[in-house]
Design a protein that fits this description.
Strand order of the largest sheet of chain A: 3-2-4-5-7-6-12
Number of helices of chain A: 12
Strand order of the largest sheet of chain B: 2-1-3-4-8-7
Helix content of chain B: 40-55%
Number of strands of chain A: 14
Shape of chain A: globular
Oligomer: heterodimer
Mean pLDDT of chain A: 95
CATH architecture of the largest domain in chain A: 3-Layer(aba) Sandwich
Radius of gyration of chain A: 20 Å
Number of domains of chain A: 2
Order of helices and strands of chain A: EHEHEHEHHEHEHEEEEHEEHEHEHH
Structural class of chain A: alpha/beta
CATH superfamily of the largest domain in chain A: Thiamin diphosphate (ThDP)-binding fold, Pyr/PP domains
Number of helices of chain B: 11
Mean pLDDT of chain B: 96
Shape of chain B: globular
Radius of gyration of chain B: 19 Å
Structural class of chain B: alpha/beta
Largest interface: A-B, 41 and 41 residues
Order of helices and strands of chain B: HHHEHHEHEHEEEEHEHHH
Low-confidence stretches of chain B: none
CATH class of the largest domain in chain A: Alpha Beta
CATH topology of the largest domain in chain A: Rossmann fold
Strand content of chain A: 15-25%
Distance between the termini of chain A: 44 Å
Strand content of chain B: 5-15%
Helix content of chain A: 25-40%
Low-confidence stretches of chain A: 334-338
Largest sheet of chain B: 6 strands, parallel
Chain lengths: 342, 325
């Protein structure tokens, strides 16, 4: 397998799907010569021309709505919203139109649109260019929500999203774009959305993450191993539908859960996962579920403050050590193995 | 009215008259049913706006598309929607167009090109514009009619979408039903320019004001605009000046306008005007009028009976159709 960046993997998925299916078109701001604000669509204009790479004026609500109209009449538009913060401008079309059409209008209506958008902080863009608004869409029946964490998944899940007949919000993360990883050149069967992946097998605790937090958690798991803690890492990949079975199966084995999500804590994705774990496997828990989220504040611009706000590998390590009763020098009061037999 | 009618067969004109009556009786029936508490929720009736619906619908061809508004029963009936299934949807029954999932403001029949009413003011403007983009990209010969109102003319989507339609010369005709009121707000308090049609100039296409209570005038102007759009000349904005004779929705006390104003508006009732025209031209005899009126009433009665007799959707349908599996 070749090493590609997350950006290249997304671009490859777009190019492949556009070559395979003439109905796939791209819409968005500055996605032509400029290649999109983060360069994902660079080079696609030369390949596919202005009829399929449709550069729009700054009119989010209407170009998302136009994608819906185009989807209802046979096309499969992939829309780019330059920053996830700007998706607020298109909320009516996403929530009140795309998400409801099938439910209300029945089999005659099919709305296969993908809305790609970069979320997240880490680049000091400040309160209106660093938000992660993913939970809003998870909260909306009729939408699917995907948040791939690796270059391979960027390609695999974007292809799945484009082939899905439902509206999909495809959440990227600004810090993921330059990340390199092995990406399959050929994907024979496109998997349906809704499957989590266990990235590290472990026995002591289940760490649940998605998007950029999965990258942070991968490093945290390695560091935890140095402390003698064998952590399992589940990358959710799809947030709606959510693969709660994989989570539950893991928690049954590890009895401890840390959920790390770059999002405000109230009514978030992490809250939802915690609630579902309680409902399904409360009896298996040896410790309270712990969430690592951003504070309930807007995202600050200052690099110093932003770093405090966003969960990262150190915070994950620290939280897990606390949960396991291990001090950060690894010496004392380890509670592991205390669990009674069931 | 006169110069247009030569092109149109008398039988066709009588069909328009009949459809206008069906819409009128249907909407009056809806108001009655609400008053009696037999249907729930909300509903926006189009009494007084029948000439716009019929004038436009009579100008479209097979494979053209129509998007509608929250005040959409009339548009749907004029486009060929089945009054029985529309009424059943208002009753929340399983035989309704949206199986009870949509209600008054969300129903469609794609097979006749009716993409649907819309519960959000201005919500259908981008969708209509996107259909026009799709038509152009797929090199089809269809045209989209986008109904919207004076209220929606102040939504951001109006500006955004008309800008793109003008930019890319999309095959869409924006039909503005200026019925004078956005709920309770008179258009003069909401729009600082003389008419909405002149806004089209900002987007590089033509805006036309037409008497929206003159079905022949509406038909004529819309037919020309459709022809232009089909020929690749791009969009047109047609402002049909009309009057919402009914209240905004169920339970509107109409305290924002006088009964005298309404009385005056009733004198300009589009159905009365068309009937007078047809009678003066010798197209509609008293016998025919009686027959057509009775038939329109029968259709509406039948719609109510159909809706009443239909079953509520089975409970499991609450969960059906959220996703395509």
């Amino acid at each position: 397998m070749r090493l590609l960046t997350y950006t290249e993997a997304l671009r490859e998925a777009l190019a492949e799907e556009m070559s395979l299916d003439r109905r796939v078109i791209l819409m968005g701001e500055d996605i032509g010569v400029y290649g999109g604000a983060f360069g994902v669509t660079r080079g696609l204009l030369e390949k596919f021309g202005h009829k399929r790479i449709i550069e729009t004026p700054i009119s989010e609500n209407s170009f998302v709505g136009m994608a819906i109209g185009a989807a209802l009449t046979g096309l499969r538009p992939v829309v780019e919203i330059m920053f996830m913060d700007f998706i607020t401008l298109a909320m009516d079309q996403i929530v009140n139109q795309s998400a409801k059409l099938r439910y209300v209008l029945g089999k005659q209506a099919k709305c296969p649109i993908v809305i790609r958008t970069p979320a997240g902080g880490g680049r000091c863009y400040g309160p209106t260019h660093s938000q992660t608004l993913t939970a809003w869409f998870v909260h909306t029946p009729g939408l699917k929500v995907v948040a791939p964490a690796t270059p391979a998944d960027a390609k695999i899940l974007l292809k799945s999203s484009i082939r899905d007949d439902n509206p999909v919000v495809f959440v990227e993360h600004k810090l993921l774009y330059p990340i390199k990883g092995h990406v399959p050149a050929k994907i024979r069967t496109v998997e349906p959305l809704g499957h989590a992946k266990c990235l590290r097998k472990g026995t002591d605790i289940t760490i649940i993450a998605w998007s950029w937090q999965t990258q942070e958690a991968l490093q945290a798991v390695d560091e935890l191993a140095l402390h003698g803690i064998n952590a399992e890492l589940i990358d959710l990949r799809s947030l709606k539908p959510i693969d709660i079975e994989t989570v539950v199966e893991s928690v049954k084995r590890t009895h401890r859960v840390l959920i790390t999500g770059e999002e405000p804590p109230m009514a978030g994705v992490a809250s939802e996962i915690a609630a579902q774990i309680f409902e399904h496997v409360f009896d298996y828990l040896d410790a309270p579920i712990r969430r690592l989220c951003c504070p309930d504040t807007p995202m600050p611009a200052s690099p110093f403050l932003e770093k405090i706000a966003i969960p990262d590998r150190q915070k994950i390590v620290h939280a897990v050590l606390e949960m396991m009763g291990v001090s950060s020098d690894g010496t004392s009061e380890r509670k592991k193995g205390k669990r009674k037999q069931r | 009215m006169k110069d247009v009618k030569n092109k149109i067969k008398n039988s066709e004109l009588l069909r328009w008259y009949y459809t206008m009556l069906v819409i009128r009786f249907f909407e009056q029936q809806v108001e009655k049913l609400f008053a009696k508490g037999l249907i729930r929720g909300t509903s926006h009736t189009a009494i007084g706006q029948e000439a716009v619906a019929v004038g436009v619908a009579s100008a479209i061809k097979k494979r053209d598309y129509v998007t509608s508004t929250h005040r959409g029963h009339g548009h749907f009936i004029a486009c060929g929607g089945d009054p029985r299934r529309i009424m059943a949807e208002l009753y929340g029954k399983s035989t309704g167009y949206s199986r009870g999932h949509g209600g008054s403001q969300m129903m469609a029949n794609f097979s006749i090109g009716f993409i649907g009413a819309n519960g959000i003011t201005g919500g259908s403007i981008p969708v209509a514009t996107g259909i026009a983009l799709s038509i152009k990209l797929q090199k089809q010969h269809s045209v989209v009619i986008c109904f919207y109102g004076d209220g929606a003319s102040n939504q951001g989507t109006f500006h955004e979408s008309l800008n793109m339609a003008g930019l890319w010369k999309l095959p869409v005709v924006y039909v503005c039903e200026n019925n004078q009121y956005a709920m309770s707000m008179h258009v003069s308090r909401a729009i600082p320019v003389k008419n909405i049609a002149m806004r089209a100039n900002s987007y590089g296409f033509q805006g036309i004001v037409v008497d929206g209570n003159d079905v022949l005038a509406v038909h004529n102007v819309v037919a020309d605009a459709i022809q232009n759009a089909r020929n690749g000349a791009g969009p047109t904005l047609i402002e049909c000046v009309t009057y919402r004779l009914s209240g905004h929705s169920r339970g509107d006390p109409r305290i924002y306008r006088s009964r005298e104003e309404e009385e005056l508006a009733w004198q300009n009732d589009p159905i009365k005007r068309f009937k007078t025209f047809l009678q003066n031209e010798g197209i509609l005899t008293p016998v025919q009028n009686k027959k057509i009126t009775a038939e329109a009433r029968r259709i509406v009665r039948e719609a109510v009976q159909f809706a009443r007799k239909s079953d509520f959707p089975p409970p499991e349908t609450l969960y059906e159709g959220v996703y395509i599996q």
